[in-house]
């Protein structure tokens, strides 16, 4: 906890001429007696590109500090034009109001400052060499930027922690680095095994595909030949069966004719029917040969 707290800052002469003094009414609160004085400083930022042009306009020691709310007026001179680049005189810059205890800064207030001519004509068409008598500054007091820092005051108890607190429980836990390395090794081994298994599987698939191609090539014609042979056997069987049936029927018809007719007519009819049966058998045989 800070022993001194800044309660408010008021810019008194604002706006003002560029070479006029800065005046601030500062209010702060002190919670306990202090052994040393407070040091207040006002810094003018001469350039936005380099800190070499920063100027400490003034500094003030305040003390001894009574406990309670305190108020005083801090005055500082205007910046030295010789230390400001000519191109940086006009435009927007920054002033910093800071306070330190025992050379340790604990609060800083920043303000934007706009430097411009007092007429629109000169602002629209500024002269090559700035006319300082016509330049006026405007501190944007409504939008300060306050930054606080934790410091050590008079007692050791007020000193901020330079290191994080000790954690015995965390120290008792094993080192995660070893476990992390072991997990990485196991993960790499598992990935290597998976890659090896994939390679063996791919080789086996390639061998199976090659074997299938070797067996499928020559066997196809055999299958076709067997099917054609089987088809031919069926056709021959069917043709032979049909021939036997036709012969039996013809013989039966021939016997009936012999019973019904007598003499030479019956024998001639039987010979005629037998000739027909031989012709039919010849036709079936020719069909089988074609197939």
- By secondary-structure content and strand pairing, the structural class works out as alpha+beta
Uncertain runs are 215-245, 250-254, 256-263, 277-291
- Strand residue content: 25-35%
How confident overall, as mean pLDDT?
A: 74
Number of helices: 4
Order of helices and strands: EEEEEEEEHEEHHH
Instruction: Tell me the major beta sheet.
Output: 7 strands, antiparallel
Q: Tell me the overall shape.
A: flat
Helix fraction, binned, reads 40-55%
Distance between the termini: 113 Å
Query: What's the β-strand tally?
Result: 10
- Radius of gyration equals 59 Å
State the assembly state of the protein chains.
single chain
Describe the structure in brief.
This protein has 291 residues and is of the alpha+beta class.
What does the model show?
- Helices cover 42% and strands 27% of the residues.
- Strand 7 (91-101) and strand 8 form a beta hairpin.
- It contains 4 helices and 10 strands.
- By secondary structure, the chain is α+β, with helices and mostly antiparallel strands.
- The protein starts with a strand and ends with a helix.
- The relative contact order is 0.09.
- The strands form 2 sheets. Strands 2, 4, 5, 7, 8, 9 and 10 form a 7-stranded antiparallel β-sheet that branches.
- It has helices at 120-124, 168-172, 176-260, 264-290; strands spanning 4-11, 16-17, 22-30, 38-45, 55-62, 68-76, 91-101, 104-117, 135-139, 145-148.
